[in-house]
Amino acid sequence: MIILQRRLFIVLLSAILALVLIQALPMAGGAQAATATNLSVADQSAASTPDCTYCRKKFFGSNAAWMYTATADWYQQEGNWCGVASIRAIQVYDWLYYDGGNPKWDNSQSAIYNRLNSYTSPWGPGGGYVTSDISRDFGTDPHSVAYGVWYDTPPSTQSQPYWFHNWIYGTSALTATSDFSRDFGANTHTHNDPITVMIDGGYHSFVISGVYSVGDPSKGGTVKSVVTWDPWLNHSNNSPDGTHPYNQTEEQIWSMTDWTANSVMWGQPYNTNNGSDPEPDTPNHYYVPPFPSRNVLHHWDTAYVTIEQDYINIDTYSADIAIDQNGNPAPHN
Q: Is the pTM of this model over 0.85?
């Protein structure tokens, strides 16, 4: 009889617990559903798969607060001053890193334009918008931007040199992005300095402040997205004429898929056939293609083009010298 009573008690207790659980389940399910509706598609995927690539991505790059300060005077003040505005952003960023202060001379966009228009390459002018162009570019070509960034950044020190060059990647958009991403991370030769990239076939330029990567990109991590800053937009995401042909916001993250596929990003390489961004054309044909001795047909055309702070001593190769994807001087005559 005692055993029967105990069994009856256990059965009743189990039934009560089952009823409690049944009532609790819809409530938990409802809360979970409500939470999921507030997440993006990527976030929902991450939430449902805790051990995922999305969860492991991490930002490697420039200081966000300094970048915001460095782009305070954006948008670009003339229609073809994307290069000028990019120079100023990197200049201000580097002075903040150098001593926490402002550049020691006039750093307005118009002052930078004037400096670009008062320098000529060792091979003569290219007949472009500014005298530091080595091509007939409608704005600032990669050579003039490389010179401008080097000129306007702080003096080099033994521990932190400010050396800049025009890099020309004759590879693919994916490989070139992976290569420049090594500028960001713990093992970089820079201080995670922002870089400039030529997009839309050379028609426009962006500043890139870093990447999201699975693993440190300076140690071979896998880049998943690129953080871009568009000088066509200001902090309020307005443009000079109300259009947004590139970014929808001044700072925008592009997935590697979109970055390497979209034709106004790196879905196309530098394109000298667009009429606005031709190859060099200086009196001394140093960088005027083709280069028969190297069996190379182009300078910028068909390549992916950046301006980066690097490890190449400016006393060895000045900012006038372009660098190929292997870190060597680009082909020339």
A: no
